[in-house]
Amino acid sequence: MISRFVLLIFVDVLLAFAAFFSAAIVRFGYVETTITLFDFRGFSTAVFFAVVSIFSSQLMDVYDFSKNSNKLEILINIVLGTSTSFFMLSIAYYLEPSVMMGRGFLIISIALFALYQFLWHCLFLIYRHHPQFSQRILILGTGPLAQQMGQLVTSSFNSYTLTGYATCSSNESNHSDRENNALSVPPESILGSSDQLVAVASEARADTIVVALSERRGIFPLRDVLHCKLKGIEIMEAPSFYERVHGKLMLEHITPSWIIFSSGFRRTTLLTLFKRCSDIILAALGLLLTAPFFPLIALLIKIDSPGPLFFRQIRVGGSEEQFNLYKFRSMRQDAELATGAVWAQQNDPRVTRIGLFIRNTRIDEIPQLFNVLKGDMSFIGPRPERPEFVEKLKIVIPYYSKRHFIKPGVTGWAQVRYPYGASVEDAVEKLRYDLYYIKNLSVSLDLLIFFETIKVVLFGRGVR
Fold first, then answer.
1. What are the pLDDT digits (tens) for 153-168?
2. 163, 157 Cβ separation under 8 angstroms
3. What is the chain's Cα-based Rg?
4. Could you tell me the sign of the dihedral formed by the alpha carbons of 419, 378, 313, 455, in that order?
5. In angstroms, rounded to a whole number, what is the distance separating the alpha carbons of residues 214 and 212?
6. Which uninterrupted H or E stretch holds 63?
7. Which domains does the chain have, with CATH numbers?
8. How far apart are CA 318 and CA 371, in angstroms?
9. What's phi and psi for 328, nearest 5 deg?
10. pTM score of the predicted model
11. Nearest-CA neighbor of 259 among 149, 398, 448, 392?
C-alpha cells in the first residue's frame, strides 16, 4: 500500500514539472524555456508549483485508493485538487509577484497537469484492476482463517486476484487438523491438496501463496512450500498478507515468533536522529506560528468557563515512563470529579462551548508541542494513554504494552486511519495501527501521516 502511494506521488511530481515546462514552451517558446530551465528563479518556481500541486492532490483524496475506483471518481478528485492548487497558487502569486511566470501561464500549467495526472491515474487504475496485471493469490487452507483471507482478497481495492484454495492434508487426525481442513470456503474454489502444491500453484499461475492455517504443527507441507518458494513464488503468512492489504496488524493471529522473525521493528540510529531533529524543527515552527494567537485563545477559554488555561494530565510515554501532557482546557474544571477517569464520548457534556470549537479544530493539542520539545513525545507516534486505562488494557489486550517501545506522538497512523477511541474495542483497533507503525517506521510513512494529519485538521475528521 505504501509503495503504491509513493509510486503515484513520485510520477505526479515528474508530471508537475512536465506540465510546468510544457506550459512555459506554449507561453514563451522553446528557446526561452530552455534558458529558464537552468535559471534559479524558474527552477525554484517549478519546485513550488510541484509542491503545491501534490499537496492539493493529497488534500482532495487523489491518492486514496478507496475513493478512486473508477475514472469518474478520479476525474472529480483531480478537478478538486487542481482547483485547490489554483486557489493556493493565486494567493501565493498575489503575495509574492516575483515568483509568477506571467499572465495565463498559471491556467495553462494547471490544465496540463490535470490532463497528465488524469491519464496517468487512469493507466494506474487499469494496472490495479486488470487480471493480467494483478497479483494472483493461492490460499493454503480451507478453514475459517482461509475464508477470511479469501474475503480479504476479493473485497479489497488492491491489485489481487483470488485463484483458489489448496487443502492441507495430514496423516494425523487431531483437532487442529480438523479445524484447518474444515470446509469454510466454496468447494468449487478448491484446486487441489498440499501434496500437489507445486502443480496446483503452477496451474493457477499463482504469484503468492498465503498460508492460512490456524495451527501448523504436524501438518505444514514444508517440502512442497519450499519447492514453491524456490520456483519464485512468494510465500506469506496470513497476518503478513492482512498487514499488506489493510495497513494494520492482525492481532488475533500474530505470535511472538512472527514478531521476532518478521521484517520491520527496526530503529536505526540515523532514523532516531532524524525523527528527533524533525520533532524539534516542527515543534518550534508550530509554536512560533501559533504563539500570536495564544492571548486570544486564553481570553476565550477564560470568558467561557472558570478554571486554568492549560489542562495537565498524567500520560504513559516511551518505555512506560509517565509524564505530564499539556493541552488547552476544553472541559469544565470539575469534569471528572464525580466519575474519575472515563473515556471521552461523542457530544461529551463535559466539553465547554469554546472547548468544542478548539477540540474540533485541534487547537487544544497545540501545547503538546512543548512536550515534543522536552522530549516526552515525538511529533508522530502512538497517542499517549492515561495510566488508569493502560493497566486495564494491558490485561485484556495482547501486545498492548508493545506500543510503548517508542515515544508517543501528537499525531499518528492510528489517528489518521481510525476515529477517536472511546472503548476497549476501539483500543484494540487502534493498537493494530500503532503496531503497524512501529513495525514499518520510516521517513516515507511519517510523511504520509503528516499530510493525512493536515486533512484531518482541515476537515475535522474523527473528532469526539
1. 988 665 788 999 999 8
2. no
3. 26
4. negative
5. 7
6. none
7. 2-129 (no CATH), 135-246 (3.40.50.10700), 269-459 (no CATH)
8. 13
9. -70, 135
10. 0.78
11. 398
